[in-house]
Every structure is written in C-alpha cells, then in structure tokens.
Write a structure and sequence with these properties.
It is built from 13 helices and 2 strands; from the N terminus they run H-H-H-H-H-H-H-H-H-H-H-E-E-H-H. By secondary structure, it is an all-alpha fold. The protein has one domain: Vanadium-containing Chloroperoxidase, domain 2 (Orthogonal Bundle). Helix 9 runs antiparallel to helix 11.
Length: 427
C-alpha cells in the first residue's frame, strides 16, 4: 500500500548545513524536530554534545522506522490522502492538532523501546523535550485530540513490533570457518547485533526476498580482478589511492543513518514540504533503510564470506593462481565485526536514496550531502551517492566490488518494492 512518490516542487534545491541543533519550533517542522530528537537519542554516541545510545546503524534504523511509521500514520489519520501503514486505527476527530500527534507518536514509540535500547537518562530527556514541545501548543480539544491520535499510532506500532526478533534472549552470531572463502573474525569480535538478520521486515515479504547472487567463485578471473583492485586501492599504508579517493573514503565512514536523516531534514526544509509529505518522506526512507539492512544481515548470515584482509593474507590457499598472497596486508579502515558479502553501507545507501528518488521523482534534485564535521559533497541526483559509496568501501579496503554492487542492487529492490506497495495514495 504505497505510492509512486511524486510531488510538484522546484526542480533544484541546494541544502546547506546549519551548524548545531535548531531550537524547538523555531525553524524546524514538527516532523523534522522529532526526527532530530529520535536520531540524537538513538544514534548519537554517549560522548556527543547531545549524548545518545550509540546504536549501530542496523539497530538504529529499525527504531527510526518504527518512529516514523507511527508518525506517518498519526499525520495521515488527521490529514488523509494516503493509505495507512497499519490498519485499524480510529479515525481522527475533526480539528485534531497535527503537531501534537507527531510529537506524541514519536515520543511514545521511543519510550516504548526495550530497556536495552535507551537509558533512563535518555528517556528522561525525551520526556522533557516532549513537555517543552507540547507547551507551545495551545491547550484545548485540538491539542488533546492530537495527543490521542499520536498515542494510538504509537501503541499500534509498538504492538506490531513487540515480538519482531529484536534483542533475542538467545545469542546470535555469524558463522565462522577456516576454509577458503569463509568469514573469520578479524580482531573486532562477532557482531553483537547479528540478530538483525532475523528481525521481521517492515514492508517487504521476508528478509530473503531479494537474496543476492552471492560472492564470486574464488577460482574465477572476475574474483582475481576484484582481489587485485581492493589489494591495490584499499591497503592501509602502501595503497595506490589518490588523495581525493582517500578523502572520499573517509567521508563515508560516517554513520549513514545519522548523516542521511540529517540531510533529508535539510532537503525537506529547503523544499518546503508539507507536514504530510515530510511524514511520508521520513517513513519511506527509514522503512526502506531498515528493510535494506535486515535483508543485508540475512544475506551476510547466509553467505558468511571472508573480508578482503583475510582473502589477501591467505591468497595462496584460495585455488586461484592469479591471487598473490600478502600476509601483512591490512585495510585502511579496521574491519567491522561481520562478514563481507554484501556491503551493509551500500544496502542502506541504495535503499534510502532510491526511496528518496521515488518520493521526489526522477528530476534532478541538487543538494550538498553534509558530514557532521561540516565537509560536504555535492550531488545532482540521490542515486549518485551510491556510486561514491560503492567506490569508498573499496578504497577503505573492507569490501571488494561485487559485495558493494550487489548490496546496492538489494537496496534498490527494497526501495522499489516499498514504492509500489506501501504508503500509496487513496484512489
């Protein structure tokens, strides 16, 4: 139940970062403000100026999808025009305040997350932000009704996701092996959030719906060519990377869920989106991102393929005479604690960028993708970001090309499915 996202807006906008958080209700819409509060609470590290839970992208985007699914349903219950994400919600009373509904839906989902997700201090902060936000809305039936609508949407979302596979009681780990091609722990442990592979999806039918074709055969010429590429470009100290390639690689070590949500807030503000359109945008990109990463983790669990560092250090044992081993080879970026195939960064980037393309349409949308450190990269299409994140993971030495490309294709398929089946306009 989702639309081909099309809105009539100016064809080109450049979004520019405003340093620091924007004060509540001054320049931000309700949807943007509560996206910011959610991102800060869920994703910011404990050491940030606005401390957060420091959840990894795989977990954080699932929780953001819950927040924005509830916000979308709350707004849609009042404004209408689109099919709800969850059925069975009571119709909103006439005149219900939309901003109160947005804040309540987001706040109640965040406070309804499991104890492992957010500390009590973060919950107390969210309570304070919520009270401050509501204080700016005049008391009366409209405010009361808006709060009730948001509470109903949040309760429905929390009920749906109550037993969705998050934080299982039994530990889940990626399989480890010693044979050629099998993933081996490379110093940073086994992902404590490997259970994401088993979490229920939001919009696609299952986490294996868009299973990738898998890694290249170790003895193939294609595998040898990609081996040589990452060996040359991704090495820590003696790489053939240019300074521009290194700069791009380091730009994309940022938490992509935080960076993309922050930049979508900037783009939405520059575009002047309505509350309904903003709610739909953030629901779409975060639900697509969540299903992209759930699918990716399922694929990683299925293939459990080794990282380039393991492959290159053991190149003499893979059965391919064209792969020359280097026992001392290390990547530019330390290996993350999960298998190589496919690339999670590209699953996420492609799912979110294709969802944004579906929303805004095929026309050019020029924007600056701004890093938290203030540096920026300019793009004229959302999907052009994917080309850079594919190359960046090779320059970082943590993926060869096929895992990047197949991860991006998986994310594209997730976003296309969402665009055809979810959040569609009412006929």
């Amino acid at each position: 139940m989702h639309p081909r996202f099309r809105i009539t807006l100016a064809l080109v906008v450049v979004a520019t970062l405003i340093s620091g958080p924007t004060s509540a209700n001054s320049h931000e819409s309700a949807v943007a403000e509560w996206n910011r509060h959610a991102v800060e609470a869920i994703l910011n590290p404990a050491t940030a100026a606005v401390p957060g839970a420091g959840q990894p992208p795989t977990v954080g985007v699932i929780h953001l999808a819950m927040v924005h699914g509830a916000v979308y349903d709350a707004v849609n219950a009042i404004v209408g025009g689109y099919q709800p994400y969850l059925s069975g919600l009571d119709p909103a009373p006439a005149g219900a305040n939309v901003d109160a509904a947005v804040a309540t839906a987001a706040h109640d989902v965040l406070l309804g997350l499991p104890p492992q997700a957010l500390s009590q201090a973060l919950r107390d902060r969210l309570d304070g932000e919520y009270e401050s936000f509501l204080a700016d809305i005049p008391d009366g039936p409209a405010k009361t009704d808006g709060i009730a609508v948001g509470a109903d949407a949040a309760a429905a979302m929390l009920a749906l996701r109550a037993s969705d596979g998050r934080y299982p009681g039994t530990p889940v780990q990626f399989p480890v092996g010693e044979e050629p091609g099998a993933w081996r722990v490379t110093g940073s442990g086994n992902d404590p959030a490997a259970w994401v592979a088993n979490v229920n999806t939001f919009v696609i039918t299952s986490s294996s719906q868009f299973r990738t074709d898998g890694p290249l055969p170790l003895t193939s010429a294609e595998y040898a060519a990609e081996y040589a590429e990452v060996k040359a470009l991704g090495e820590k100290d003696e790489s053939t990377r240019t300074s521009a390639q290194t700069a791009m690689a380091m730009f994309f070590i940022a938490n992509p869920v935080e960076m993309f949500n922050r930049n979508f807030r900037l783009i939405a503000a520059a575009k002047g989106l309505s509350t309904a359109d903003e709610a739909r945008l953030f629901a779409a990109v975060n639900m697509a991102g969540a299903d992209g990463l759930i699918s990716c983790w399922d694929d990683k669990m299925f293939y459990a393929f080794w990282r380039p560092m393991t492959a290159i250090q053991n190149g003499g044992a893979d059965g391919n005479p064209a792969t020359i081993a280097d026992p001392d080879w290390e990547p530019l970026l330390a290996n993350p604690p999960y298998p190589d195939h496919p690339s999670g960064y590209n699953c996420l980037t492609a799912s979110m960028m294709h969802a944004a393309t579906d929303f805004f349409g095929p026309q050019h949308v020029a924007f600056d993708l701004v890093h938290a450190n203030g540096t920026a990269r300019h793009y004229t299409r959302f999907t052009n970001v994917i080309k850079d994140t594919i190359d960046a993971r090779i320059y970082l030495g943590i993926h060869s090309r096929t895992p990047d490309v197949q991860g991006a294709l998986m994310g594209k398929k997730v976003a296309r499915w969402l665009g055809r089946h979810e959040l569609r306009p009412v006929d």
